[in-house]
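[step 3/7] fold_predict: job queued, chain A
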Amino acid sequence: MSKGSIRYIRPQEIEGLEIQEVIDSNHSFPNHTHGFHSVGVMDAGGCYCRQPGSGSSFVSRGEIALFNPGLVHSGVIKDSETRITYRVFSFENPLIEKALRDLAEKDRLPEFNSVVIKDNLTTATLTQLNVVASGRASRLALDTALARAAAALLTRHCDTTSKVPRTAEPAAVKRVREYLSENLSDNVSLEELSAIAGLSRYHLLRVFREATGLPPHSYHLQLRIEHAKKLLRSGLPFAQTALQSGFSDQSHFSNTFRKYTGATPSQYTCI
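[step 4/7] structure written:
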């Protein structure tokens, strides 16, 4: 790979695993969340990982950033001259849940207990997974590399938590989240959401952010981006993906997609 490049690796044999390789980037990410466990390995340079209300951590070369599902965070480059090289490993929940059950024989969700760590062993297992997934490895080699990486992450840097949320999500917020999920391509108004929630617009904005860490429009946009990623992976053309994900045109779609993923739609689908 050359400088300023980005590549995605998705082994067909392991559904739910995606590896993003980024070289010499100066892209900063706005506040966002993931619906899955995400692990970033910083190979060169460094950036700030900021969490609203929880301060900021700096991720340096050789360190790992661990993101639990639903953790609101941003990735911010120090200045316009800074360039970073990193890898992001995305593990869909069923994938990491299965690994946890295999290791601990528990039906519980794993939760990372730190945001930024330095652990040479874990880095080595992730690098080996990266290497194996990039080549023409056997299924057994892939399974073995994944198992070793999962074991390092889960036994060294995870707690297990009950699947019952620590605080009950307000019913009004749940209704709004469901409505946004079911209306990805619609131009939803705050007035609509207020009526669905049975709350004033201002009250809804407050309780929704408290529950999700994001305002409704940002939450809706993220849902649309995640939907677009699935459509792109299925092979749907860019124009149809943009339309079905609620974007007015391809330019708007491409710019927004890159803002939240660091990649253009064509880079995301090029393997």
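[step 5/7] annotate
Confidence is low (pLDDT under 50) at residues 162-166.
The chain has two domains: 6-161, 171-264.
exit 0
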